[in-house]
Specification:
With about 425 residues, the chain is an alpha/beta fold. The chain contains 13 helices and 25 strands. The protein has 2 domains: about 5-20 and about 235-430, UDP-n-acetylglucosamine1-carboxyvinyl-transferase, Chain (Alpha-beta prism), CATH 3.65.10; about 20-235, Alpha-beta prism (UDP-n-acetylglucosamine1-carboxyvinyl-transferase, Chain), CATH 3.65.10.
């Protein structure tokens, strides 16, 4: 069993560039594979989840060249150029891979089966299967279409008007991709605005996508008119940067500059929250890279943070940051309450239960709700043995908590950080004094 041991930090100093954005890395491979011609993807995230996506498309006949400096050359074969895979497609731990690829495979005229690891096999898939069936997809799954494995017999799809029952960028993206293969115009209405990397990238490739507030309309293609290939540079992942933002705020006398971070407004709800907490964080040098806003984030510690109340409306823009916000709340004066987060019970782990359980081990007063959590600060953290639940974001959040805890904190099954942030512990050690 992999274990990481961490002790209290004196301060954090320096500059870091977080790993490339995971969401954009996934989408760049998928969309380039169904484009017509050669695409170039620079600064690709070589972590377990995006590699699952790469392997999936290689298994369907897509040539992907791996160059120095995390650059990929992807030889796209068009919307209908994929080949039936010889074997089951293993999506590993990646919910993005399995849900988005389901939309593509539903419109391709061959048979395929999708599976994943034990964690992914417990995550809900009916949310994509039900609307894909409405579109005419030949798709079925285990336990009454709820869980992996998923079997798909692709066929011609029809457009639908779909109102999403859950706020999910993965479900939305799945249906946008299926819409490319459908006759007519598919309309998708979101509950709240979720991350929009799919819409941005596909529009740049020539897809007919119209966005009107919470309604996205995608016009299906007649035959293979082809998406244009892309030349994209993947910015650094805000969700990975979030751990270092929190660390700088929690550890006195810290000052770090986090560079080249994607600050897409559908992803950065945490920045709004921490400003309300009184954090000294500045977003600097904002520019555009490959259609995404990118900036440097300057963070300073030694701030008296105050508690906040976080509700459902902002949750889609900070869904991945819930665990680290829980850790940050332990060092804020008063009681922080996070609600409207029931979706987090069906991520890589039950993140609400996981954070409640592990923070209690560190000496924090916590109350767990069906849709969230309340955390009493300012807590005096005490090192202990804690569990990652094989969830990369839980492991990294507990590592940041360890920097403010007396004694030694041991994180079991810590190697799961490689799902999104290979080298996380080394980078943390580099800037810790």
């Amino acid at each position: 069993m992999e274990r990481a041991e961490l002790t209290k930090a004196g301060s954090l100093k320096g500059e870091i560039i977080p790993p490339p954005d995971k969401s954009i890395s996934h989408r760049a491979i998928m969309f380039a594979s169904i484009a017509q011609g050669k695409s170039v993807v620079k600064n690709f995230l070589r972590a377990e989840d995006p590699i699952s996506t790469m392997n999936a498309f290689r298994s369907m006949g897509i040539e992907i060249e791996e160059k120095a400096g995390n650059e990929l050359i992807i030889h796209g074969k068009g919307l209908y150029g994929l080949k039936e895979p010889f074997d089951v497609i293993d999506c590993g731990n990646s919910g993005t891979t399995v849900r988005l690829i389901s939309g593509i495979l539903s419109g391709n005229p061959f048979f395929s089966v999708l599976t994943g690891d034990d964690s992914l096999k417990q995550r809900p898939m009916a949310r994509v299967i039900a609307p894909l069936k409405e579109m005419g997809a030949g798709i079925s799954a285990r336990d009454g279409d709820k869980y992996l494995p998923i079997a798909i017999k692709g066929r011609r799809l029809k457009a639908i008007d779909y109102r999403m029952p859950v706020a999910s960028a993965q479900v939305k993206s799945c249906l946008i991709l299926a819409g490319l293969y459908a006759d007519g115009t598919t309309a998708i209405t979101e509950l709240q605005k979720s991350r929009d990397h799919t819409e941005r990238m596909l529009k740049s490739m020539g897809a007919d996508i119209q966005i009107d507030d919470l309604v996205i309309k995608v016009k299906g293609r007649s035959g293979d008119m082809g998406l244009r290939p892309i030349d994209v540079t993947v910015p650094a992942d805000f969700s990975s940067a979030a751990f270092f933002i929190a660390a700088a705020l929690m550890v006195p006398n810290s000052e770090i500059l986090i560079k080249n971070v994607c600050v897409n407004p559908t992803r950065t709800g945490m920045l709004e929250i921490i400003k309300n907490m009184g954090a000294d964080v500045r977003v600097e040098n904002v520019r555009d890279i490959s259609g995404e806003p990118v900036a440097d984030i300057h963070c300073k510690g030694n701030v008296n943070l105050k508690s906040v109340k976080i509700g459902k409306d902002i949750m889609p823009s900070l869904i991945d940051e819930f665990p680290i916000l829980c850790v940050l709340a332990t060092q804020a004066e008063g009681v922080t309450e996070i609600r409207g987060a029931e979706e987090l019970r069906v991520k890589e782990s039950d993140r609400i239960k996981a954070m409640a359980t592990e923070l209690k081990k560190l000496g924090v007063e916590v109350e767990e709700y069906p849709d969230g959590i309340s955390i009493k600060g300012k807590a005096s953290l005490k090192g202990n043995v804690v569990e990652s639940y094989h969830d990369h974001r839980i492991a990294m959040s507990l590592a940041i908590a360890a920097l403010a805890a007396e004694g030694t904190t041991t994180i079991n099954n810590s190697s799961c950080v490689d799902i999104s942030f290979p080298g996380f512990f080394e980078e943390l050690k580099r800037i810790t004094n």
